[in-house]
Design brief:
The chain has 453 residues and is an alpha/beta fold. The chain is built from 16 helices and 14 strands. The chain is 50% helix and 12% strand. It is globular. The N and C termini lie far apart (77 Å).
């Protein structure tokens, strides 16, 4: 046997042993997950992970292994541990089950889904009616119809007094796909993504698809959902690729104070970290909202869509704004995945942009949230009034309350709600959507109030 074959044999032996240890580690992780569920603990434990991370960094130094390599491998292992332990109910899963019950003939009140019940403007209807006549039925550029992107740029520059250029915009299949494109085109195996909890579940799902490691900064009701900037700063390291913020927040409705946002941008700038700001609920801002558009920071991605304000959820039109390098990477991936967003939908969104009815929708949403607030004050719950978006995120103050079990129970009674566990470590919280008419919301809250007695 020559030297090459001998070394290859050693590689095989070492790799085999590594796989055996990975298998053993996953079995232990399952056992840990069962114990956590019995004790009502969250799967993600940032403190324990950080202790392990520091230990591995010390080991890397001792054995002369590149720290970045060691941490990337550790992040993959932690991801697998979380995967075998994690059993969270997402809004999508609850919505799917509710729809199944509806097909079986059961009446369901949908206070679980983030879908405004508003009707798109007449201009949108007219555009769709004339799709064939106007020739809006072809392939388009992967980055979007030029006329639509030009209109988006003009609208953004006027609204935020900025200087976005057309090549800095990509039109996507809803805001969700914009998030997917950004994470998939920029995050590599073992890279870290920091997100402020509670957070939209799609952030975790997209991170897991590319084997990125989601680092979670927990916020609390007691702190009025304000993130601890010192803790955030301590979470950033050489492997941090992206920081995700979402304000107005889903599910809390929190709007970040400008001074806090400035500190976050400063931390990202100091560490050359990409900030992705999900601003799909910015139209529903009842207090002063500061957009990432207001900051001259090149390494940013701003996500928005036509699903919430213009109420065009089924049209699936969103967009992202960033520097030309990042947008080019996202365009390349979108071209491979689906060529482009459907041309009729882009022109429909253009019509909504030119003939918007946002003010009317915002006032209705604000009124509905006020109604929910008054009703919740008569129930055994604690909450912070939302400053934007279209949700309440109350904590139920009943001993032993489990939101996962409770949402299953009330779904059988005809009320669909989302448990807080879908948004992070919030097992006794509920998300309540204001996406239905007032009489429907009242009926749903009647069921909720009876069930909490």
């Amino acid at each position: 046997m020559d030297e090459l074959e001998k070394l290859r044999g050693e590689i095989r032996e070492v790799t085999t042993e590594i796989m055996k240890y990975v298998k053993k580690r996953m079995e232990i992780a399952k056992q840990i997950g069962e114990i956590k569920r019995e004790k009502g603990l969250d799967v993600v434990d940032e403190k324990t992970e950080e202790e392990l991370r520091k230990s591995i960094m010390q080991l890397c130094s001792q054995i002369d292994l590149e720290t970045d390599v060691g941490i990337r491998l550790l992040n993959v292992l932690i991801n697998e541990s979380e995967r075998v332990q994690l059993k969270r109910k997402t809004p999508t899963a609850i919505f799917t089950k509710a729809k199944k019950l509806e097909r079986q003939g059961k009446k369901i009140i949908h206070l679980e889904v983030g879908e405004p019940d508003f009707v798109p403007s007449t201009a949108v209807k007219d555009t769709l009616t004339n799709v064939i006549e106007n020739g809006y039925y072809h392939y388009t550029e992967p980055r979007g119809v030029p006329k639509f992107r030009q209109a988006l740029v003009q609208s953004l520059n006027k609204k935020f007094n900025t200087s976005v250029k057309e090549e800095q915009v990509i039109v996507t299949v809803g805001g969700r796909f914009a998030v997917f494109l950004a994470i998939s085109s920029l995050v590599k195996l073992g890279d870290e993504i920091v997100v402020i909890e509670p957070y939209w579940p799609a952030f975790r799902e997209c991170a897991e698809l590319v084997n990125g490691k989601l680092r979670v900064l927990h916020t609390t009701l007691e702190d009025k959902w304000v993130p601890d900037i010192s803790k955030l700063e301590n979470m950033i390291n050489k492997n941090t690729r992206m920081l995700i913020i979402n304000y107005p927040n889903n599910p809390t409705g929190k709007i970040l104070d400008k001074k806090i946002l400035e500190k976050i941008v400063g931390i990202a700038n100091d560490n050359k970290v990409i900030i992705m700001s999900d601003e799909v609920y910015s139209d529903y801002s009842f207090n002063k909202f500061t957009s990432l558009h207001d900051y001259d920071y090149d390494n940013k991605i701003i996500i928005s869509s036509f699903s919430k304000g213009p109420a065009m959820t089924g049209f699936r039109v969103g967009y992202a704004v960033s520097n030309t390098d990042i947008i080019s990477k996202m365009v390349k991936l979108q071209a491979v995945a689906l060529t482009s967003v459907a041309e009729p939908m882009q022109y429909a969104a253009l019509s909504a942009l030119e003939n918007n009815k946002l003010k009317e929708n915002v006032e209705i949403m604000k009124k509905r949230l006020s109604l929910i607030s008054k009703r919740l004050k008569k129930m055994p719950v604690s909450f912070v009034e939302p400053e934007g978006a279209m949700y309440f995120f109350p904590r139920v103050e009943l001993k032993g309350f489990n939101a996962d079990q409770f949402t299953e129970k009330v779904l059988e009674q005809g009320l669909a709600l989302t448990p807080g566990s879908g948004f992070g470590n919030y097992p006794n919280f509920l998300r309540i959507s204001a996406g239905q008419p007032e009489n429907v919301i009242e009926e749903g809250l009647d069921i909720l109030q009876r069930s909490l007695k």
